[in-house]
Design a protein that fits this description.
This protein is an alpha+beta fold. It contains three helices and six strands; from the N terminus they run ββααββαββ. Strands 4-3-5-6 form a four-stranded antiparallel sheet, with helices on one face. The chain has a two-stranded antiparallel ribbon with strand order 1-2. The structure holds zinc ion (2 copies).
Length: 126
């Protein structure tokens, strides 16, 4: 009778050195102005890994402190006609806001990239 040999189960197969212990990688954000660093484990559990944890954190940080964490530079959209404007951390969201605003109000919206490039979105004739 040969004893069945079960495959040895490695409790923590290390395939990625950035994710020890098999835990999903938790993004971190640092801010030189606050001299702090945060693990976004709470944000990740709320929006999911690969979600917009860093984006959400950066927006919250700016809302409460008036500045963005390190390495985060927003897209800024500003309407030329009304005080409406927003800041976004992704080009797609920024352009979507500009196009939606222009479409509904027929206002001209400036889109300012983090690189300093400017773009203008106007309502297309429909
Ligand atoms: Zn800060
Ligand atoms: Zn407007």
């Amino acid at each position: 009778m040969v004893a069945l040999k079960w495959p040895r189960i490695e409790p923590n197969p290390v395939t990625d050195h950035s994710a020890p212990d098999g835990e999903p990688e938790v993004p971190t954000v640092s801010c030189a102005r606050c001299d702090r660093e945060w693990d976004l484990d709470r944000e990740v559990s709320e929006v999911g890994v690969g979600g917009h944890a860093i984006e959400q954190f950066a927006l919250d940080h700016e809302r409460h402190t008036g500045h963005y964490p390190d390495d985060v530079r927003p897209w800024i959209v500003r309407c030329r006609r009304c005080p409406d404007g927003e800041r976004f951390l992704s080009e797609r969201s920024a352009r979507r806001w500009a196009q939606t605003h222009a479409r509904h109000t027929r206002h001209t919206v400036d889109v300012e990239a983090p690189t300093g490039d400017d773009d203008v979105v106007t309502a297309a004739d429909e």
